[in-house]
Each structure stands twice: as structure tokens, then as C-alpha cells.
Amino acid sequence: MAADEKTQAKTEQAKGKAKEAAGRAVGNERLTAEGRADQTKGDARQAKEKAKDAFKH
Fold first, then answer.
1. Which residues, 6 or more positions from 46, have their beta carbon under 8 angstroms from its beta carbon?
2. 3-state DSSP of the chain
3. Tens-place pLDDT, residues 18-43
4. pLDDT of residue 57
5. pLDDT over 70 (residue 1)
6. CA atoms within 13 A on the CB side of 23
7. Cα–Cα distance measured from residue 24 to residue 20, given in angstroms and rounded to the nearest whole number
8. How far apart are CA 52 and CA 39, in angstroms?
9. Which residue, 13, 14, 31, 35, shows the most beta carbons closer than 10 Å to its own?
10. In Å, how far are 10, 27, 52, 53, 54 from 34, measured between CA atoms?
11. Distances (CA, A) of 11 to 4, 14, 25, 40, 57
12. Mean pLDDT computed over every residue of the chain
């Protein structure tokens, strides 16, 4: 389960970076903002998983 969550976090971060880059390329501020939001969600998910790992050991 934890590996799945970590993978999902990385995927969200990558998707967010791609969206942000695409938004900047075409000048779409909304798409850029969505990309940043996706990255933030991925970062939060990753931090949560790291915290869980720290308390397991």
C-alpha cells in the first residue's frame, strides 16, 4: 500500500510539472496553476508517506 501511495505521489508531481510547463508554453495561466496544484498535492502525499515511514522504524 505504501509503495502504491509513493508511486501515486510521484505521478501527481510529474503530471503537475507537465501541466505547468504546457500552461507556460501556451500562456494559459489556469493550466499553469493547475499544474502547481497537482505538484503540491503530490508533495503533500509524499511528505505524509515519509512521515509514516519515519514512525515505522
1. 6, 9, 10, 13
2. CHHHHHHHHHHHHHHHHHHHHHHHHHCCHHHHHHHHHHHHHHHHHHHHHHHHHHHHC
3. 999 999 999 999 999 999 999 999 99
4. 67
5. no
6. 16
7. 6
8. 20
9. 35
10. 16, 13, 27, 29, 30
11. 10, 5, 21, 12, 26
12. 92
Say which residues have a Cβ less than 8 Å from residue 56's Cβ, sequence separation at least 6. Answer: none
**Residue 26 CB coordination number (10 Å):** 9
Task: Look up cell 510521484; give the residue.
Answer: 10
| Phi, psi values for residue 31, rounded to 5° | -65, -40
